[in-house]
Amino acid sequence: MSERLRPMRLADLDAVLELEEQLFAPDTWTRAMYRDELSRTDSRSYLVAEDGDRVVGYAGLIAYDDEAHVATIGVAEDRQGEGIGARLLDALLAEADRRSPVVLLEVRADNQVAQELYRRRGFTEVGRRPRYYQPSGTDAVVMKREKL
Ligand SMILES: CC(C)(COP(=O)(O)OP(=O)(O)OC[C@H]1O[C@@H](n2cnc3c(N)ncnc32)[C@H](O)[C@@H]1OP(=O)(O)O)[C@@H](O)C(=O)NCCC(=O)NCCS
């Protein structure tokens, strides 16, 4: 496995925004949103997976004392299915377990691959949010994982 995980930096944002467009259009986060997230170092933990000098994946956690939240996770289309997403998620969950008793996330209702990945990591469905993703209007499934 040649890619390594490290904290996301402002200098990664060009690469991250390119992946964001590839993976999440039209419901993409903007550069301003990422800059804001990266500035909140007390509660945010954003990682990239890097292979050589290429960012091939990224993920982010928002963690408070009572609750953590998987904010995003994505792997370049040509590198999916290699275990990178699982490694990013495991790193976020290890951080979440240090900080919060429970982790929540939203996932697109039509995204079976991601839902399965979360289920295998102990998440269960606890609700739905109609038209959560904008501007597409896609529904979200809310999933929750209690610390073991
Ligand atoms: C969801 C995502 C992050 C997973 O990352 P990944 O690197 O492809 O996933 P991994 O290779 O670590 O595989 C994770 C699991 O999903 C399974 N999987 C991966 N791609 C799959 C596919 N196309 N079909 C079925 N299963 C698949 C793997 O077998 C693996 O299962 P395991 O945990 O039992 O071994 C990635 O597919 C992605 O970026 N998707 C688009 C963006 C997205 O949907 N993000 C999640 C938003 S909530």
Automatic annotation (TrEMBL):
It comes from Geodermatophilus obscurus. GO terms for molecular function: protein-N-terminal-alanine acetyltransferase activity. Acetylates the N-terminal alanine of ribosomal protein bS18. Residues 3-148 form the N-acetyltransferase domain. Gene3D superfamilies: 3.40.630.30. It is found in: Cytoplasm. InterPro entries: AcTrfase_RimI/Ard1 (IPR006464), Acyl_CoA_acyltransferase (IPR016181), Bact_Acetyltransf (IPR050832), GNAT_dom (IPR000182). Its EC number is 2.3.1.266. This is [Ribosomal protein bS18]-alanine N-acetyltransferase. Keywords: Acyltransferase, Cytoplasm, Ribonucleoprotein, Ribosomal protein, Transferase. It catalyses: N-terminal L-alanyl-[ribosomal protein bS18] + acetyl-CoA = N-terminal N(alpha)-acetyl-L-alanyl-[ribosomal protein bS18] + CoA + H(+). One of its GO terms (cellular component) is ribosome. CDD domains: NAT_SF (cd04301). Belongs to the acetyltransferase family. RimI subfamily. PROSITE patterns: GNAT.
